[in-house]
Amino acid sequence: MVGDNKAVACIEDTAVDLKDLAPYIAEFSALMKANNQEVVYYAHAGAGELHLRPILNLKKREDVVKFRKITTEVAKLVKKYNGSLSGEHGDGIVRGEYLPFMVGEKVYQFMKRIKLAFDPNNIFNPGKIIDTYKMDENLRYNTDAIPKQIDTFLDFSESIDILKASEQCNGSGDCRKPPTAQGTMCPSYHATKNEKDTTRARANVLREVLTNSAASNAFDSKQLKEAFDLCIGCKACSSECPSNVNVAKFKAEFMYQYKKEHGSSFSDKLFARSTARTKKMAANPKLWNALFTAKLSSFLIKKVGGIHQKRSMPRLSAIPFSKIKLVKYDWQITQQQRVVLFIDEFSDYYDANIATDSLQLLQGLGYQVDVLNGLESGRAQLSKGFLEEAKEIISSNASVFLEAIKSDAVVVGIEPSAILTYRDESLYMSDNKEEAKVVASKTFLIEEFLSNQIKQGNVTSSQFTEESLSIKIHSHCYQKALSNQKHTFDMLNLPKNYSPTLINSGCCGMAGSFGYEKKHYDVSMKIGEQRLFKAVRKAEENTLIVANGTSCRHQIKDGTSRKAVHPASLLLKALLPQ
């Protein structure tokens, strides 16, 4: 819930015998009406339990009084029906003080004896079940305090402000799910198993620091620096967290504000402004590729750049896409939809062959394609908190995209982290929100675009080979968070005898520059080892590994020695002569 009113978990686990549920809820509802209280009703009616949450603002003194009053009255009502005040989630600090009343003093004393027998020094979860704290003491906020205003560079108005955005975390702990579970959140926690590396820890440290800091720049905090250090910005929390807590956005704002006080390291500048250097290096790719791989020069380059010595350096394309003399094929334009293909900086300089394949695939399928290259996406700047530079790039590109869209074209991109910037960050960095929304609605990852065209019947399996091929797909984290990896599956499922499978791979751990950095390399490889590397190694030799992210393919090669191909390149090979 946006704002200070929240669905508060103080009576959410009440359970009664199923035959008593209807009269219990009738009395409960009357009790809430008497307290003039709105309530959320949710969950397991078939088990005699509903999650009941009154909507309160615990920053206000009168609602803290209601907090205790409602819990006490409901505890009495539950006991009347011989039910449980904590039928599923446990007692903890909030309901612990009601245990003697609920179970009786004699049973409670038995519980204390068991606790002390196993934990005589009271070091395990003190104050949670036995001799608990009072439920309305030691709360997060001083009641009736003047709300704190935190100025930010990014727009957090969808949550009112950054402080209220951090308060969206309700502590459910979904970010602590094991790596074997579906989804990606939270990769660094999977690697370290440390609570500080969870989504909820980062949100709560941010809330705590911003609420209580007396500094002129509340973001100037060692605690925040430590909390965000291993956040790889995968954005999984923005879609997988039940409250959609967006820690990647928090981190971008933190890095920007922290740099105001401490400046930027040489390594951060090197990665953030890498495109300008890459453009110069691309003038002589053979020389630089030789320097990247030669033992002494590679050692020195990595040492200066803060790159781990075990990490292989990316190879520049022999010819950048922008310098390739494209072969003109006699393809007919058969599709009504016009396409503007955005060649990002990664595809231009490191994956020119993929950029060429993507162009030829779209042309081969009958689309009129205009190429847009020579622009950087702003992704590198965003990843290091250079938000002012990123905003300038993103705003400029959005204007170019907007012009293309006016002629009924759609913008299609290759690298997920680059193109999906215009569906995410652009929306809360742009000075013209309406234009940003228009651009976002007409901007697609190439897999999304083709998947939609397949659904519309504009692209059919008859256009592709009938050869058999087994495929395992690893999708980029941004595609999982902001789009759907099923688009890649649908695209590669089009050839009749292709057998694609989505790997439950989580995050590869590379995260742009994160995996290159000396201080983060070990965590990066641990993340990759959790699921992705194991799945790739288990794949048979004749199974093709597909990955759409530049850094993902690099990580797969470093972690498994298996080469991964881009889905557009694979589909082009399957395309029959038109």
- Mean pLDDT reading: 94
Tell me the helix content. 40-55%
* Lateral strand order in the biggest sheet: 5-4-6-7
Uncertain parts: none
Please, how many helices? 29
Amino- and carboxy-terminal Cα gap: 53 Å
How would you classify the quaternary structure?
A: single chain
Main beta-sheet strand count, sense and barrel state? 4 strands, parallel
Number of strands: 10
In terms of structural class, how would the helical and strand content be classed? alpha/beta
Please tell me what the overall shape is.
elongated
Descriptive report:
By secondary structure, the chain is α/β, with parallel strands linked by helices. The chain has a 4-stranded parallel beta sheet with strand order 5-4-6-7, with helices on both faces. Helix 1 runs antiparallel to helix 2, helix 19 packs across helix 22 and helix 23 crosses helix 25.
Task: Note the topology.
Elements: E1 6-7, H1 21-34, E2 39-42, E3 51-56, H2 61-80, H3 92-96, H4 99-103, H5 105-118, H6 162-166, H7 187-192, H8 199-212, H9 222-228, H10 236-240, H11 247-262, H12 266-272, H13 274-281, H14 285-293, H15 295-305, E4 338-342, H16 345-349, H17 352-364, E5 368-372, H18 379-383, H19 387-406, E6 409-413, H20 416-419, H21 425-429, H22 433-441, E7 443-445, H23 446-455, E8 469-474, H24 477-482, H25 486-492, E9 498-502, H26 521-530, H27 532-538, E10 543-547, H28 550-560, H29 567-574
Parallel strand pairs: 4-5, 4-6, 6-7, 8-9, 8-10
Antiparallel strand pairs: 1-3, 2-3
